[in-house]
Target: ABC transporter ATP-binding protein
Amino acid sequence: MNALNVNRIVKNYGDKTAVNGLSFEVSPGEIYGLLGANGAGKTTTMRMVLGLILPDSGSISYSGKQYSKDQLSMLGYLPEERGMYPKVKVSDQIIYLAQLRGMSRKEADKNLKRWLEKFQVPEYYGKKVEELSKGNQQKIQFIASVIHNPKIVIMDEAFSGLDPVNVELLKTTVKELRDGGTSILFSTHRMEHVEELCRNITIMHKSNPVLQGPIKDIKKKFPQERVVVSSEGEIAGLANIVGVTNVARYEHGGYELKVSDPGAGQRILQHALSQGPVTRFEIMEPTLNEIFIKTVGESHE
Ligand SMILES: Nc1ncnc2c1ncn2[C@@H]1O[C@H](COP(=O)(O)OP(=O)(O)OP(=O)(O)O)[C@@H](O)[C@H]1O
Model:
């Protein structure tokens, strides 16, 4: 059974439609990507999934059940806007939040200590939030979203404001949660994180779902327009090959070519080989970033 089923939800604010007939499902142990340009309707969707606002029509179910107060303990939320109390001790507020979600004080305390150890910051237990750096407050907020062992976690820009080492730490943690069976609804503008973490995605555009499905299938629908080729020396005449529309030389050697038809790749390879050994040749699949820009870019607000 799916952990989360979103079925044709609609949300209007006056005459403005924020979400228009969105459906998707998330399996247990899956990280699902919810993407879209600013104002596309992602936050509104996440709020509906969290039960903070109700859809005007459509329905959401959690392991087959409709939303009720009981669901509160199975949902976790890492909001984009950070909202910790600066003057309150880390332990006091995390344990309080866990208790609000149905966990005993003792268990919450044990969990918090385990998380702080995992993030190698046990000394934060007794510190006030304002004493921590922004990135470390972010780690505490992450802990707040998962302290009660939720089955479904909604993460909005989970890695913003973190240095590369901490991004890796939290990425690994998100994967571990997934492997432990947690379902994660993951929203971000960082397409490389989506490529790495998500199997299925929805791209929303102006309140509508415009592209949905497994990333690997979505990529097959978009043309392969880039070819990378390298040899020991220079390769002359690449720009004259039929189907090549642009040639860029990498600083560190090799070329990246834009092509307008699929047959151009083989012509490039033959051309390069005719001049000597080829050290690299690759027809690149489109990146999610390119797909995103193609899908929502033209009329991006
Ligand atoms: N409370 C509200 N009242 C009126 N309009 C709203 C409200 N919340 C959202 N909207 C409108 O609904 C649309 C979708 O907004 P939403 O915040 O869901 O987008 P988003 O995809 O999360 O954008 P961003 O990436 O900028 O956070 C926008 O046009 C927004 O102005």
In short: Residues 164-179 form the longest helix (16 residues). Residues 135 and 194 are 21 Å apart (CA to CA). The domain at 223-285 is CATH 3.30.70.980 (Alpha-Beta Plaits).
